[in-house]
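Job type: complex structure
Entries:
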Amino acid sequence: MSKVHVTTSINGDPTEFLCEPDSTLLDVLRDELGLTGSKEGCGTGDCGACTVTINGRVVCSCLVLGAEAEGAEIGTIEGMAEGDKLHPLQQKFIEHAALQCGICTPGILVAAKSLLEHNPDPTEEEARYWLAGNLCRCTGYDKIIRAVLATAADMREAS
Amino acid sequence: MQYLAPQTLDDAVKALASQPDAKVLAGGTDLLVRMRSDMIHPDVVLDIKRIDETRRITQEDGGWRIGASVSAAEMGENAALVADWPGVVEAANLIGSTQIQGRCTIVGNLCNASPAADSVPAMVAANATVRVVGPEGTRDVPVQEIPVSPGKTSLKPGEFVASVFLPPRPERSGDAYLRFIPRTEMDIAVVSAGVALQLDEGGTCTAARVSLGAVAPTVLLVPEAADTLIGTKVDEPALEALAKAASAAAKPIADKRGTVEYRVHVAGVLARRAAVIARNRAGGAS
Ligand SMILES: Cc1cc2nc3c(=O)[nH]c(=O)nc-3n(C[C@H](O)[C@H](O)[C@H](O)COP(=O)(O)OP(=O)(O)OC[C@H]3O[C@@H](n4cnc5c(N)ncnc54)[C@H](O)[C@@H]3O)c2cc1C
Ligand code: FES
Ligand code: FES
């Protein structure tokens, strides 16, 4: 199997990698590039733990081939904080105790950030639908949704 | 495995024709699941997303041409498309989660040939056609002729679908799609129904198409059900007759998701509810 050479951008950094043609983007991020924030919960698109953005859209990186990243702009959880400064969503997740084991958290944060970019003032129902593809088996969804809505309110006030 | 990403339809056809074990990759939300669960091991994966023609939504002869790489999310963001074919777009937007929406295509949904595929009954009701390209040239095919049995399509070796065409939306017409699932998101249809209809100035139905999903090996077009609406005001007696005809056409299996009796009944209920939405969208009495 000959490897595919891919030139892409990850969290704004130009990046090149070689991957097997059947490797997923998730495998590449975790195993080739050491970006282990994205998690594999299911590998079949059901849990959202592997959520990243490609050209601004949230996708399950377990269902994307690494080769498909050619020329794309990828955003992962590693790009969310600015240095030591947490993104408001990350801060609120801590304040609201919206995580326990944390496996689902990177995917939920990436998806929630994209929600607030699309819709700065989501209703609870809209937030729940948007995040329906992100499963959490420990915290329960209430704290997560509350943290997202509280962040949205803060960010609206700040802007 | 080899990954190919041709930039033209011609190159894609050539590559497919020379590789008997190639699989077309659109959004990958079915294909990658099957590859990863070791159900298939294609020699070649042919990504069609770099082909310009497959990436566009364009108005054509009063209707809409939707490229085979256009994601369901992109369809939902096109306000003019939503206004013309709300039922088709709603059906596409029911597929999976936000993450799946960003990738999945209605052509992938069709070519995966699942009897429960959400966008297919809506496309069938809308009288959509697909443009198939292949070594022998190009042909336009009604959507309902693509799936032949679960997982199998009528596409010949070397052929693939380049785009879908939704015909011009007639005056005073409307379409709708409904599915039943045990939860509100992220589940496979137990039964589904699509309706597209047209009214005259007096509110009488002049044309209709009714389709059912998940009640047979392929999505069904049910002319007997459509006939119950034509010539009526899509009022209570007509809706009653529609429900009966839809139930009579349903030939489901029983599985953990629903019994035969249940699916037969719900097919009638959903056809009726979809007809009411389509009628109201067409401007008929509510
Ligand atoms: C978590 C999850 C939830 C889902 N929920 C739903 C749901 O609610 N409703 C539903 O209907 N489906 C659902 N699906 C299934 C899937 O998302 C849809 O069927 C989707 O529309 C497939 O489109 P795709 O572009 O991703 O297809 P792909 O995976 O790229 O392709 C699917 C099949 O079609 C073939 N193919 C693709 N494009 C072409 C083409 N242009 N010409 C010829 N052959 C082609 C491929 O070779 C493959 O065999 C879900 C899947 C996942 C993982
Ligand atoms: S690991 Fe990708 S969705 Fe679960
Ligand atoms: S915190 Fe453990 S899965 Fe969500």
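Summary: Chain A has two domains: 4-79, 88-158. The beta strands of chain A are 4-10, 13-19, 51-54, 57-60, 73-75.
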